Amino acid sequence: MATSNFHNVNASHIFACSLENEWDFEDLKDNLSYEFKNLDGFDTLTKSDPSELRSFPSNSICSVSRQHIYNNFSLDVIVTIVARSGYYEGCNLDWHVNYEIDGHSADVDDFLSSINYVYSNFV
C-alpha cells in the first residue's frame, strides 16, 4: 500500500504545486500574498496550522479576516492559506479557519452560540 503524496484537510480538491527548488516555493508564497493583499483584513502574520503532520509539514502563507462588532462583543473569522509539503514532492494548497470572540480563540460551538445569541436579541 502506497502513501498518498498530499495531506488535505479543508479544500474540496487537491491543489498540487510542482516545486523544483526553494525559489519556486518562495515565488508561490509571494504570488498568493500578492493576490490576496487587496482584500480587507489581509495579514501576512498568520497562525500556525493546527492540522500539520510530521510527514506533511505545512507553512502558513497569509490570512484574511473579517470582524463583526455587536453591542457588547466582537466576532472574528480568520481564514489562513496553508501550503502543505507533499510526502514525495511538491506541495498542496489548503486552508484553515480560526474563530475569535473578543480577541480570544473560540471553537465552532462557542462561535455559533454567540451568533445565535446576537440573532435572538435582534429579532
Number of E strands: 6
- Mean pLDDT, to the nearest integer, reads 82
What Rg is obtained from the alpha carbons, in whole angstroms? Answer: 17 Å
As a percent range, the share of helical residues equals 10-25%
Tally of helical segments = 2
Using the alpha-carbon principal axes, give the shape. elongated
Number of separate structural domains: 1
* Residue runs with pLDDT of under 50 for 5 or more positions: none
- Mind describing the biggest β-sheet? 6 strands, antiparallel
How do the helices and strands follow one another from N- to C-terminus?
Answer: EHEEEEEH
Percentage of β-strand residues: 25-35%
**Gap from first CA to last CA:** 55 Å
What is the SS-derived class?
alpha+beta
Describe, in plain words, how this protein is organized in 3D.
- By secondary structure, this protein is of the alpha+beta class.
- The protein has two helices and six strands, in the order E-H-E-E-E-E-E-H.
- The protein is elongated and about 55 Å long.
- It starts with 14 loop residues before the first strand and ends with a helix.
Topology of helices and strands:
Elements: E1 15-17, H1 22-36, E2 42-43, E3 58-69, E4 74-85, E5 91-101, E6 104-106, H2 108-122
Antiparallel strand pairs: 1-5, 2-3, 3-4, 4-5, 5-6
Summarize the structure.
The protein has 123 residues and is an alpha+beta fold. The chain has one domain. 24% of the residues lie in helices and 35% in strands.
